[in-house]
Amino acid sequence: MKKHYDIIIVGSGVAGLSTLLYLIASEAYIKGNLSIAVIAKGAIDETNTDWAQGGIAAVAAMQDNYEKHIEDTMNAGGYVNDIHIVKKVVQSGPAIMHDLLDWGICLDKKTDGTFDLVKEGGHSEARIWHYQDTTGHALQMALTNNIPTTQKLDLKTNNTVLGIEKDINGIFHLLNYHNETKFTENLSCDKLVLATGGLGTVFEKTTNQSIATGDGIYFSHHLGAKISNLSYIQFHPTGLYKEGPISFLISEALRGAGAILVNKIGESFMHQYDERGSLAPRDIVSRSILSEMQKTNSSHVYLDATKVDTIYLATHFPNIINKCKEILNLNIFQDLIPVIPTQHYSCGGIAVNEYGESTIAGLFAIGECANTGLHGANRLASNSLLEAIAFAKFATSQLLKKTVLTSSIIASEDIKLPKYKEIERLPIQKIISNHAGVTKSNKGLNIGLEALYQISDSAPFIEFDINNKDAIKLWENHIILELSIMLIKDALEQKKNIGVHYNVDLLLFS
Ligand SMILES: Cc1cc2nc3c(=O)[nH]c(=O)nc-3n(C[C@H](O)[C@H](O)[C@H](O)COP(=O)(O)OP(=O)(O)OC[C@H]3O[C@@H](n4cnc5c(N)ncnc54)[C@H](O)[C@@H]3O)c2cc1C
Fold first, then answer.
1. 214 and 335 inside one domain
2. Nearest C-alpha to atom 31 of ligand 1 is from which residue?
3. pLDDT digit string (tens) for 449-500?
4. Do 438 and 472 have their domain in common?
5. What positions carry a catalytic annotation?
6. According to the model, what pLDDT value does residue 80 have?
7. Does the residue 323 lie in any domain?
8. Range of the domain at 209
9. Hey, whose CA ends up nearest to atom 41 of ligand 1?
10. 184 and 246 share a domain?
């Protein structure tokens, strides 16, 4: 017998868990009239959220105001953001910080007892609430600690949703796979929240965790939902350069503290490209680094933090210090840090309205998998955690509305195991990174698209084998291929260079 829930939330990062916490505060849940399941691919904290470093942007200080945060967000986004959404999210900031403090988040304070708000690139005021350089972990812990253990809530970690269908009655059906026991089950729900995060692993180098394979975007596309601006990918200029796909992020805050970019012979080069030097906007710094790498024939550049005040470095960047030591045995007080532009954030995704609802009734998308209109063509630093919590809150009233059945026919067919094209991940990642990276060209995009089609055409469909230990990874490779094709097509459709989108064959937008 298929288990039915009022609401299923797929994802246990900031988007999924804050949606859950707002829902369980409702009268319906308290009275026992709302059943919810939360499903997550890995452990509950195996999320991009847990890795967030810088913090959460929200207006608080006396000299700051909503207008300034709105302007900074619009300016970063190339003024193609949805102004209504920007205002709504920014104005919800203080109440959201209040909610987070109620949920017990631990944030840094100054010696006078007030919160230590810092400034990040693109922000005109100090409005970033943080806990050292591990804000995401503090957030993930606070959210997780508030999850109740009641019968009306099923928490399914280490479970991968492999398929989603919607029946003529408006009910969603999910095929769920338990990664360890290999057991599959069919579930259904009235309303479905996709909080599945970004698609970083489509690229060869990403700051994202391995769970970021864009599953929610893939499912939504197959359900017929609108996906928009998939090619608006933010690259972070300073991912730690090392072997392997997952790159540790060296936060912008380190450059804010005085670290500078240097080339392989130790020369500072950023001022040759932009008068703001190492603190120019992310897209400009990324393009400058790539140009410098080409000029000096090197595979990366370096970040020099050796001149940063040692006490400031030690107190503000303990995580970066430890990770550089752990990963590359570097002592950043003395050694240069090798860095390279790295995929970081997906600004586009599942198109949603101001309540987080996609173009399919009852299907919600919250967090990085969604395109809300807040970021426009580029995300302002630290706006994404705020966005995820804000939309979790905005969605609550719609999620709590009773579903009106569109037909009296009860569909109870089980979803079959998916078929996928058996392909390798790295060749796709190389194609997308080479042809749809920081700098694009029409020729490169077309070559990339053709190469992806060839991979797709040459691979046969095979059935998901629940006993194959690599089945999930292979299935994800198929998703990565489809999303890569969608991403390149979206890039080819972009008509102007704006924000993160830079195609040498297009004119600069003015
Ligand atoms: C290194 C790093 C630093 C960052 N720093 C900041 C910062 O300082 N400030 C800021 O605002 N933003 C920051 N960001 C961005 C921000 O962290 C993310 O945008 C945000 O955490 C995404 O949250 P989410 O809930 O949408 O997704 P995630 O936190 O990634 O969670 C996704 C969830 O979906 C689940 N899932 C996915 N597919 C399936 C499936 N098929 N079945 C079951 N479950 C599934 C996963 O298991 C996971 O639980 C940073 C990102 C990175 C990578």
1. no
2. 13
3. 999 999 999 999 999 999 898 999 999 999 999 999 999 999 999 999 999 9
4. yes
5. 282
6. 97
7. yes
8. 3-51+133-232+347-399
9. 161
10. no
Q: Is 290 in the pocket of ligand 1 (CB under 6 A)?
A: no
What's the gap in Å between 198 CA and the centre of ligand 1? 6
Specify whether the CB–CB gap between 397 and 96 falls below 8 A: no
Ligand 1: atom nearest CA of 16 is 25
Q: Tell me the CA distances in angstroms from 292 to 211, 254, 271, 410, 427, one per residue in order.
A: 32, 20, 12, 62, 26
- Ligand 1 touching residue 171 (CB < 6 A): no
- Can you read off the two tokens belonging to residue 237? 């200029």
Structure tokens at 69: 């945060």
Confidence (pLDDT) at 410: 62
Residue 227 and residue 306 share a domain: no
Specify the pLDDT at position 279: 81
Residue 120 resides in a domain: no
Which atom of ligand 1 approaches the CA of 382 most closely? Answer: 11
For residue 510, what pLDDT is reported? 42
**With a cut of 70, which residues of the chain have pLDDT below it?**
404-412, 508-510
197 pocket-lining for ligand 1 (C-beta < 6 Å): yes
Calculated CA dihedral for residues 300, 385, 41, 31, nearest 10 degrees: 180
Instruction: Give 10 Cα–ligand 1 centroid separation in angstroms.
Output: 12
Measure the CA–CA gap between 350 and 398, rounded to whole angstroms.
17
Q: Is residue 404 part of a domain?
A: no
Could you tell me the distance, in angstroms and rounded to a whole number, from the CA of residue 330 to the centre of ligand 1? 27
Ligand 1 centroid distance, CA of 202 (Å) = 15
298-353: pLDDT as tens digits: 999 999 999 999 999 998 899 999 999 999 999 999 999 999 999 999 999 999 99
Tell me, yes or no, whether 454 lies in a domain: yes
CATH number at residue 449: 1.20.58.100
Closest approach atom of ligand 1 to CA 369? 26
Q: Are residues 20 and 145 in the same domain?
A: yes
In short, whether 382's Cβ falls inside 6 Å of ligand 1 is yes
3-state secondary structure 443-479: HHHHHHHHHHHHHHHHCCEEECCCCCCCHHHHHHHHH
Question: What is the distance in A from the centroid of ligand 1 to the CA of 378?
Answer: 17
Pocket test for ligand 1, best of 20, 119, 384, 387 (most atoms within 8 A of CB): 384
Which of 133, 196, 372 has the most ligand 1 atoms within 8 A of CB, as the residue to mutate?
Answer: 196
Ligand 1 contacts CB of residue 10 (under 6 A): yes
Among 157, 156, 134, 142, which Cα is nearest to 46's? Answer: 157
Separation of alpha carbons 323 and 101, rounded Å: 28
Measured distance CA(42)–CA(74) in Å, rounded: 35
Identify whether residues 179 and 138 lie together within a single domain: yes
